[in-house]
Structure formats: C-alpha cells, structure tokens
Design goal:
By secondary structure, this protein is an alpha/beta fold. The chain has a single domain, classed as Uracil-DNA glycosylase-like domain (Uracil-DNA Glycosylase, subunit E), CATH 3.40.470. Helix 3 packs across helix 8. The protein is globular. The relative contact order is 0.18. This is Type-4 uracil-DNA glycosylase. Belongs to the uracil-DNA glycosylase (UDG) superfamily. Type 4 (UDGa) family. Keywords: 4Fe-4S, DNA damage, DNA repair, Hydrolase, Iron, Iron-sulfur, Metal-binding.
Length: 219
C-alpha cells in the first residue's frame, strides 16, 4: 500500500478499517479537546474515494451531529462543489482536527483555532484516513489543512490551485476554506474568493474525469 506522506509527520499511524478508526478516534484522549466536545467528527465518504477533501476543524453544527461540513461552511462548499460538477457522495470529506474547539461568550460557543499541539495530537487520525482511503487526489481547504499537507511555508493567497505531487500515485492542491470566505468583510472579496474556490474545484473535477478514463493520466 502506497503512503501519502504529510508534511508534518506522525510517530505512529493507527491501523484498521475506517469503521475501526472511527471507533478508536471516538476514544482519543491525546489532547484536551475531547472534554468539551459533543462528538468526535470523523471523516465520511466512500472507503476508496478517489478524492479526499480535508478541512480544518469542526464547527458547532458538526459538533452536534458528528458529521463533517454540515454547517454554513458546509452548505457553501456543497454549492461550490455542485457548480464545479463534483458529487459529494463520491468524495471523502474530513478535517485536520476532529473535535470542536470553542470559547464561551455569554451563552454562545464561538469557534477558536486549535493550537499547534492540538493539531499535532490529531494528525494520527488524518494520516490513518489517508492510509486507508488511498485517494489519488487530495484537496486541502484552508491554511491549517494546506500547511499540514505541504508545510508551514505554504500560503493560500499565492499558492492555491497549484497541484503538488504527494507520492507516486497521488497529488494534492489547496484552496480557500468556505468558512474563510464567509468571514471576509467585503462582499466583492467574498465573491472573488468563492469564484476562486469553484475554479480550483473544477480542476479537481477535471482530474477526476481523467482518472475515470482507462489509460488516461491526470491533466
């Protein structure tokens, strides 16, 4: 089995089927984030999906349901994927960090970025998902995922949309995270970034179509 290496490696990769990994991750105590979480939000999708989309970390709705990309960012991603011609049911969707991190303000739980140590503790599960699914195409959504895949020097603003080799039979690309687009204060910049997200996902759709053709190579 080929190995898709992360730029930020892990000491040991948990073994087992996706169902086994999901059960193991639910009992993970490698960092403190599990204490305040409702669910461990593991990846979802076909066990041998050709493409894997990797986000950053779950939000409040993902925490409540235990499913990735079901909140406002997930709805925007669904819209972008539809415009690009991607079928969510054919993709494996996951996050770099599997628990919702937040801070309390009044009665609200507000998103807070996972620390470097928390990200490091959770990378074993992402590495295990990559090892088990063996996607040919890997898409990093947002800076956290992109740096996990390609290293700390990666910059979404200047390097998004560019394919990078990830082992002998896989390659990856990074693009905007939908939540980052939603947080952009200017409407014109939100429109521009959304168009860039769709364009990058169109590249993924083109690569998927090429892989579906016998004897064809990715463009």
């Amino acid at each position: 089995m080929a190995v898709i290496a992360l730029a930020k490696p892990v000491d040991a990769i948990p073994a087992g089927s996706l169902a086994t990994l999901r059960r193991k991750a639910a009992g993970c105590r490698a960092c403190p984030l599990w204490r305040g979480a409702t669910h461990t939000v593991f990846g979802r999708g076909p066990a041998h999906a050709v493409a894997m989309l990797i986000g950053e970390q779950p939000g409040a709705q993902e925490d409540r349901t235990g499913e990735p990309f079901v909140g406002p960012a997930g709805q925007l991603l669904d819209r972008a994927m539809a415009e690009a011609g991607l079928d969510r049911d054919e993709l494996y969707l996951t996050n770099t960090v599997k628990h919702f991190k937040y801070e309390i303000r009044g009665t609200a739980k507000l998103h807070k970025s996972a620390s470097a140590a928390e990200q490091a503790a959770c990378r074993q599960w992402l590495a295990a998902e990559l090892s088990r699914v063996q996607p040919r195409l890997v898409v990093g959504l947002g800076a956290m995922a992109a740096k996990t895949l390609f290293g700390n020097a990666f910059r979404i603003g200047t390097e998004r949309g560019q394919w990078r080799e990830m082992g002998a039979r896989a390659r990856g690309v990074a693009t905007w995270h939908p939540s980052a687009i939603l947080r952009m204060p200017r409407e014109d910049r939100r429109r521009e970034a959304y168009a860039e997200l769709v364009a990058d996902l169109c590249k993924v759709a083109t690569a998927l179509a090429a892989l579906a053709e016998p004897g064809e190579e990715m463009p």
